[in-house]
Amino acid sequence: MSANLSPPETWAWERIREGQVADFNEHLGETLDPKQPESWGDDRKIGSRFLRTLFFEKPYCDEIPPEGVRIAGAYLPDGQVLPFARVPRQVWLVRCRSEALIDFGGSTISGWLLLKESFLGKPQSLSLNVAQIEGLVDLDSLLAEGEVDLAGAKIGDLLTAIGSIFAQTVKVNNVHAIATSYAIRATSRMPSGS
């Protein structure tokens, strides 16, 4: 069943299929800080098409439990690309490190989207452009080094970004949410030698 998945993806899929959080920190016995690049390696690596595979390829899509896809402590060097998709369950990428774009632009997510306590690289970190998330969007304690695009997103519950750091542009025009909760610190990093 897991012929197309790497060993870390296979392990994550087995946990997800059981309705559990695929927590690499617990599994590997070491909690890594997503903001620090050291020690993030292949033993935590999830490929950029992993979510697409789970949600849209058989047999995986037929076996995702009601709890959805919940992942913690994973290394996403190539991001995750799932634009303009209908995602029938919640998605968690908590305490993860991504070096590239997490793209849910134009997607509809039936449930929560959690990216809290994660690191997202640059030049683009996150796209929820015109996405529809039926539940909570939790960006608490997120460090986004690149652009974050929430423009036109429709959020059916709370949008929260308490303690988050956005180092570049955050597009928030026409965001619709039941409520927002944030205490955001925006930073500007000057290139070395400036």
Task: Describe how the helices and strands are arranged.
Layout: H1 7-17, E1 22-23, H2 24-28, H3 50-56, H4 60-63, E2 69-72, E3 75-76, E4 80-81, E5 86-87, E6 91-94, E7 97-98, E8 102-103, E9 108-109, E10 113-114, E11 119-120, E12 124-127, E13 132-133, E14 137-138, E15 143-144, E16 147-149, E17 154-166, E18 170-171, E19 176-186
Parallel strand pairs: 1-2, 2-6, 3-7, 4-8, 5-9, 6-10, 7-11, 8-12, 9-13, 10-14, 11-15, 12-16, 13-17, 14-17, 15-17, 16-18, 17-19
Question: Keywords for this structure?
Answer:
globular, 194 residues, alpha/beta, 5-stranded parallel β-sheet, disordered C terminus
Can you describe this structure?
This protein has one domain. Helix content is 14%, strand content 34%. The chain contains four helices and 19 strands. The protein has helices at 7-17, 24-28, 50-56, 60-63, and strands at 22-23, 69-72, 75-76, 80-81, 86-87, 91-94, 97-98, 102-103, 108-109, 113-114, 119-120, 124-127, 132-133, 137-138, 143-144, 147-149, 154-166, 170-171, 176-186. The strands form two sheets. Strands 1, 2, 3, 5, 6, 7, 9, 10, 11, 13, 14, 15, 17 and 19 form a 14-stranded parallel sheet that branches.
